[in-house]
Fold this sequence. Notes:
The structure is a homotetramer of 163-residue chains.
Chain A: H1 7-14, H2 19-23, E1 25-32, H3 38-48, E2 53-60, E3 65-71, H4 74-83, E4 88-99, H5 104-114, E5 119-127, E6 130-137, H6 140-149, E7 153-154, H7 157-160
Antiparallel strand pairs in A: 1-3, 1-4, 2-3, 4-6, 4-7, 5-6
Amino acid sequence: MLQRSTCHSERSEESNPYSSKIMLIKQLSIFLENKRGRFTEIANILGDAGINMTAFTVAENSDFGILRIIVSDPDKAKEILREARFAVSVTDVVCLQCPNVPGSLAKAMNIITAAGIFIEYMYAFSVGQAALVVIRPDNLEKCIEVLTQNKLELLAASELYKL
Amino acid sequence: MLQRSTCHSERSEESNPYSSKIMLIKQLSIFLENKRGRFTEIANILGDAGINMTAFTVAENSDFGILRIIVSDPDKAKEILREARFAVSVTDVVCLQCPNVPGSLAKAMNIITAAGIFIEYMYAFSVGQAALVVIRPDNLEKCIEVLTQNKLELLAASELYKL
Amino acid sequence: MLQRSTCHSERSEESNPYSSKIMLIKQLSIFLENKRGRFTEIANILGDAGINMTAFTVAENSDFGILRIIVSDPDKAKEILREARFAVSVTDVVCLQCPNVPGSLAKAMNIITAAGIFIEYMYAFSVGQAALVVIRPDNLEKCIEVLTQNKLELLAASELYKL
Amino acid sequence: MLQRSTCHSERSEESNPYSSKIMLIKQLSIFLENKRGRFTEIANILGDAGINMTAFTVAENSDFGILRIIVSDPDKAKEILREARFAVSVTDVVCLQCPNVPGSLAKAMNIITAAGIFIEYMYAFSVGQAALVVIRPDNLEKCIEVLTQNKLELLAASELYKL
């Protein structure tokens, strides 16, 4: 089940000047030099190592793909994928948790837009009562700041990796 | 909660020559001619109309984005977005549901790869005990066929739109 | 033939505070909602209107394409393409002209990198003794400034559109 | 100057069952895991090795780029870039040469579309009296066949690499 940040933990983080660090999620980006079969290989490598995939999306063109992935253990995943000679890089993202009702994502987007934050890309899924949104903003610190100020729920790395 | 296809319904669908039609999910693709603000506008339009977003991802380059989205009512969403002068098109995809344990997606990927099916792109999220994977294969009929033959769980449109 | 900026014109432009405006080239970006046939339609529309294409490239993914194009008359092209119901937007780019010898582009790239300028994308072609490079930097003014300071040849809009 | 295929050479190639092989151009695709500085590094490596770039384009998203490039010596370029630890792959493309007049590209595109050929992506530049178009079709053999049957000028690898 989703482990939601409670009001208590949010308040304590707001008083912590380093709280935004806690909210940064490490996304791995992996180059797929052909789309046929390479993703399967990655799924096998991570599955064999007991690493779970929380979310992923493939940004593709005709020839290639870039797999963007959130996993249960990003440091270990990066290491074993590099050992298997994949080109892997790490990007910080934020993960927003919304109630799964019409309009709840719109509310978050309005806050982000009003703050002048630019979203490079994002991807999301909703299941049951919750929606999770992975966001890559141009300004991570500010994005975390305005979302938490407006009482939106961000997942901490420790929570997300356990989903 | 996720409404899973039971063994019963799967069996009855296998004997139905039109079952693959039931399993096709309509994904909307919407052109975002700039990334700042346009997604927010879409979220507002859909939220105001009571349409829920089940999953989405943005395929982007430096200037533009293409929003790929699964919504609770794709026909209505297409209509109101076109009225708001968005360029919208419809693509059929399949939605696979896996148990949220390491290796379960790898199993599905191995089946797809072994069948010679090419995945144009995909995106996925896992929450709680389930992972949902939206797949755009080059051969939709064959993809549905091999996944159902191998007892993997595909979501019917009627189920997915309700998530 | 290429009409090169002579030293004279470059010097006079350096003393002109508005010179960078002269060097901005208008690139059209056109959404191709499917890749089959739509580009042909654009080529026909522009050809019928007597508009020449100086350079173009297609940034694509599996479903869609974005045509980036430099034409002889960008304002007229934008107008007639919009009349034909294409989604068209205008982006400013710079066009660098290098001698067509190994290392000449590297020299320009080193200047741009050393100045901390980020290139969003670019495309280039060389024919005969010259290479033309269309560049979309994150900072257009600065890019024009460092390239002209280093005696690299930028094409003015009036020259490029006539190529 | 451009070395055009003369009518003589075209005719002899048409009677040669291996002619389409001659017309295949090797495009290198190189993964740029960040867009800042990596292209400059490639330009330096190729420049130092005396390898010329005939054409290139960058297919990019927010994080990454894929450099598609035509060079004077693709085999050597691939080797030295791999030595420098770049991820490089080779894709066959065709290079069409058109007169640089409005409508000439439209004519070629109409032939390709009428033959049911799908263009994955393409990029082009015109200088002086000629336009060069690099095309990645889904069916290379057929694309070469219909273009040569319709008396359009394709550049042989031996010519293009010398441009």
